[in-house]
UniProtKB/TrEMBL annotation:
Sequence ranges assigned to domain Extradiol ring-cleavage dioxygenase class III enzyme subunit B in this UniProt record: 39-253
Cofactor dependence: Zn(2+)
Species this protein is from: BD1-7 clade bacterium
Official protein name in the record: 4,5-DOPA dioxygenase extradiol
Enzyme Commission code(s) on record: 1.13.11.29
Family classification: Belongs to the DODA-type extradiol aromatic ring-opening dioxygenase family.
InterPro entries, A to Z: Extradiol_dOase_DODA, Xdiol_dOase_suB
Organism domain of life: Bacteria
Keywords, alphabetical: Dioxygenase, Metal-binding, Oxidoreductase, Zinc
Amino acid sequence: MTDNITMPVFFVAHGSPMNALENNHFTADWDTLFKPCPTPTAIVVFSAHWHVPGTRILSVDNPKTIHDFGGFPPQLFQQTYPCPGAPTLAQQIIESLNAADIDAISDNNWGLDHGSWVVLNKLFPQANIPVLQVSLDNRIDDIHHHAHIADVLKPLRNEGVLFIGSGNIVHNIMKWMIARPSDSIEWASSFDQHIANAVKQRDMHTVARFNEHPFASDAVPTIEHFLPLAYALGLTDNNDKQTHSSFEFDDLGTACSRSIRFDAV
């Protein structure tokens, strides 16, 4: 039951698509953070992998599973997540955002990219909860703008809606292509700790000016994986208790596993 419950909000480090098939420190952190969690009426995901012009709301009855990657084993492309969609909630979100002078539109062409279904397949394997995605507007890099979109949707936490921002605080695929196991990860650990401290202190100024950190260009070479954190922060406030997962990296030290749970107290 979700009556009289304010749902938690999650920022999830989704890492590699292979996390759909593997059990590792990424998936262990997800499991630890999500348990216990009230059963949601619906799930809304802000995924790094839907970074397109405008704010689009997935408004379909049956979202397709998108395999938006290449070079992985065939069994990964066989994975599906056949959950129902949430078109009624999508329309409610569109109306709320439009009323706040945010131009949000319905989208019937997208589905669930791996920033969504890889995580959901582990956490809600029965795929029986309605899911929709909200795109990240790639025309605007301002963290405050993205946090404001999320803030408008905050009341839905009291209606049983579970929000997930799916990205990575540190994500550098080019470093992954050339990395060696002996390479230092000081650049990544320093940036991650800098942002984690700012999140814990609810210091939006520092989060918004992430690019001033000495290692920002290495940790955030492109902004799309960082933006879901802005949505998680916009959906929460100073009264939310934070639980941070462990700080670890993928095998080549290019994506950090820090996930965060926010609980109303």
